[in-house]
Specification:
Elements: H1 3-10, H2 24-27, H3 32-40, H4 68-75, H5 107-117, H6 119-135, E1 137-139, E2 143-145
Antiparallel strand pairs: 1-2
Helix pairs in contact: 5-6
């Protein structure tokens, strides 16, 4: 991959640890079926494809206001939440609401993994992590297994 493409890909990881680069809002141009599905869910067509929260200053297409987590990271001049002295804070707390369709419960795990293996290695594994979250079966003590 070209250096510009690598940097572009790495910049697609949000400060909270969500990988915008594998989000359906970003990948929408890959299939018309996905595009139509997002339009039916109320995502404005002018916000598709989403270039990632860093590019739109925390103004995610599915949120009517700027993301408070993004604002916090910017105000504290951090790259990721995990660099904060308050990490993990309540903004990163997992919730059951919409857990079956939103990857937000992965944020703390993703941020810890980024700290452990680095952003480049994380982006190489993030699709697999998301797949395990949605399709894996939980084994107590072992986490999700495919």
């Amino acid at each position: 991959m070209e250096p510009d493409k690598i940097n572009e890909r790495l910049s697609m990881v949000a400060p909270c640890g969500i990988d915008c680069g594998i989000c359906e809002l970003h990948l929408v141009s890959e299939t018309d079926e996905l595009y139509q599905s997002l339009l039916q869910r109320g995502i404005p067509k002018e916000k598709l494809p989403c270039p990632g929260c860093r590019a739109v200053e925390g103004n995610c297409p599915v949120k009517p206001t700027v993301c408070n987590t993004w604002t916090c990271v910017k105000e504290n001049e951090l790259e990721f939440c995990s660099a904060c002295t308050d990490f993990p804070c309540n903004r990163l707390q997992p919730a059951a609401d919409r857990a079956s369709v939103l990857p937000h419960n992965l944020k703390v795990f993703n941020l810890c993994l980024i700290n452990q293996i680095g952003i480049k290695a994380f982006t190489e594994r993030s699709a697999e992590i998301k797949l395990k979250y949605y399709l894996g079966k939980m084994e107590i003590g072992n986490g999700p297994q495919l």
